[in-house]
Amino acid sequence: MFKKILVCNRGEIALRIMRTCKELGIECVAVHAEADRHSLHVKYADESVCVGKTTSAESYLKVPNLIAAAEITGAEAIHPGYGFLAENAGFAETVIENGFVWIGPQPDTIRSLGDKAAARATAATAGVPIVPGTGILASVEEALAAADEIGYPVLLKASAGGGGKGMRSAANGEELQRAFTTAANEAKSAFGDGRLYLEKYLARPRHVEIQILADSHGNVVHLGERDCSIQRRHQKLVEEAPSPAVSPALRARMGADAVALATLVNYRSAGTVEYLLDEDGSYYFMEMNTRIQVEHPVTEWLTGVDLVREQLLVAAGEPLDFRQEDVTFTGCAIECRVNAEDPSRGFLPGPGKVRDFHAPGGLGVRVDSHLYTGYTVPPYYDSLLAKIIVHGRDRTEAIARMVRALDESVFEGVPTSIPFHLAVLTHPVFQEGQATTRFLEEHGAELLEAMHVRSQTEQA
Ligand code: ADP
Q1: What letters, b where the CB count within 10 A reaches 16 and e where it falls short, cover 398-425?
Q2: Exposure on the CB side of residue 95, measured as CA atoms within 13 A
Q3: Contact of 277 with 206, CB cutoff 8 Å
Q4: Could you say which of 151, 264, 297, 433 is the most buried, measured as most Cβ atoms within 10 Å of its Cβ?
Q5: Which pLDDT tens digit goes with each residue over 362-417?
Q6: What are 133-186's pLDDT values in tens digits?
Q7: Where is 366: in which H helix or E strand?
Q8: Stretch 417-436: mean pLDDT, rounded?
Q9: CB of 115 shorter than 6 A to ligand 1
């Protein structure tokens, strides 16, 4: 096992990785921007290196500085976390060329799955169902012809896509014509790659993803699903496991397909196969994420597997020490992503000083957060303040526990998305386990009303 690793990230995920390292007796080097010098991940690490000023581009994305930080501290391996360079095949290659171990899949695997149109073709080869759609579109005429065949509505997607960028739906040819230019331009400016493909736009799907783990000895297992249907602008806000819509038989099929795909691409490390689950029970491959995900704690709680520990062991060449039949699922887990955003003002971000922070506790509550009282949330990075994760014996208990945990949380000085989360958790459609990815569009007004009523009651 490694003696020392470099964690190329910040915030809660840097802390999350370091916590497992401590348990395994691995020393951790933190990197940080000048703006993050008072951050918890810097205080928590055994050593830290400042890699640049404020913006991500001049710090957490600055490859020569990150490599230099690993060199001067004598780290043996590099963990990228999520976001930043986690799915950058070029960075993974540079890490390896400089003699460090990359804690993640091989660069070629990242590259082949990072191109979403190519990944669709690979999934189809592995026998995994894909959403009806196309490969890379050469022109708007080709898009129009394909849409006529598939049937409207359709969704244009950036092949280099991520974070919902370069994605546009169209209900007819006219809309498609306009969306094509907008989506291509958006993709070009976000990823330097304007290539688009097209998919049938499913009316009311759920987002259901399968966690997998693979080692370098050919062992691949899946750890069940997470339901991430509660989204805003294609960004996840609440995740839960198990999915209220997935039976053991469906789980086994979706899991076996995820394992087949991972096996075909010679996958190593933790990864996630994302599917859309349609109302009729059919599911379709969407993409594969080649990193640890924000919502990984819900799976950890159901299975008892520390996913970061497995990433470290696999990167060190160890075989997985359990098999598919050893994986069991206990109870229900839910995660809420608490962001520094004001849901009553269109989720307007509100960085600033946290005057008072109190994390919820008690039975079945886990909080992954880099916050402390007096910490200033910088405006340069993402707005995640904390991930609150709860576990209950069943979904009803987990929901009640999450409401209780959110209620007792204190984040003074910054706006939070908690009022939104409370409105979702107490909404009958969510409580009945019926929410799809259209939940916000369909029930946004009711959620706003619930937030308003709650704030009135609190003031009274
Ligand atoms: P990104 O990589 O940009 O996050 P994804 O391909 O993962 O994009 O899709 C993000 C979200 O967009 C999904 O979780 C789902 O809500 C929605 N979505 C994507 N493809 C479709 C589709 N074909 N039909 C309906 N919704 C879709």
Answers
A1: bbebbeebbeebebebbbbbbbbbbbbb
A2: 30
A3: yes
A4: 297
A5: 999 999 999 999 999 999 999 999 999 999 999 999 999 999 999 999 999 999 99
A6: 999 999 999 999 999 999 999 999 999 988 889 999 999 999 999 999 999 999
A7: strand 365-369
A8: 98
A9: no
Pocket probe for ligand 1: among 276, 438, 439, 442, the residue whose CB has the most ligand atoms within 8 Å is: 276
Instruction: Please provide residue 374's backbone torsions phi and psi, each rounded to the nearest 5 degrees.
Output: 100, -10
Strands (DSSP E) found in 314-364: 332-339, 341-342, 348-349, 352-353, 356-358
Cis bond upstream, residue 132 (ω within 30):
no
Q: Which secondary-structure segment (H or E) carries 240?
A: strand 235-241
Pair of tokens at residue 359: 């994390």
- Residues identified as active-site: 291
Q: Distance between CA 357 and CA 338 in Å, rounded?
A: 13
* Paired residues of 388 in beta bridges: 336, 367
pLDDT (0 to 100) of residue 161: 87
Residue to substitute in 186, 437, 438, 440 for testing ligand 1 pocket (most ligand atoms within 8 angstroms of CB): 437
Task: Give 289 Cα–ligand 1 centroid separation in angstroms.
Answer: 13
169: β partners: 155
Pocket test for ligand 1, best of 234, 236, 283 (most atoms within 8 A of CB): 234
**Nearest CA owner, ligand 1 atom 11:** 234
Rounded to an integer, what distance in angstroms lies between the CA atom of residue 123 and that of residue 93? 24
Distance CA 420, CA 427 (A): 11
Distance from residue 440's CA to the centre of ligand 1 (Å): 15
Instruction: Report whether residue 201 contacts ligand 1, using a CB cutoff of 6 Å.
Output: yes
Is the C-beta atom of 378 inside 6 A of ligand 1? no
Q: How far is the CA of 234 from the centre of ligand 1 (A)?
A: 6
Q: What domains lie within the chain, and their CATH numbers?
A: 4-103 (3.40.50.20), 132-200 (3.30.1490.20), 206-459 (3.30.470.20)
- Rounded distance between C-alpha atoms, residue 84 and residue 86, angstroms: 6
Cα four-point dihedral sign 349, 209, 312, 83: negative
CA distance 42 to 60: 13
**CA dist list (Å): 404 to 102, 364, 431:** 40, 11, 15
The 8-class DSSP code of residue 343 comes to G
169: CA distance to ligand 1 center in Å? 10
Q: How far is CA 340 from CA 210, 343, 369, 373, 383, in A?
A: 28, 10, 12, 15, 5
Q: How far is CA 193 from the centre of its chain?
A: 22
Q: Where are the alpha helices (DSSP H) in 281-353?
A: 296-303, 307-315
Give 287-343 pLDDT, tens digit per residue: 999 999 999 999 999 999 999 999 999 999 999 999 999 999 999 999 999 999 999
- pLDDT tens column, 79-90: 999 999 999 999
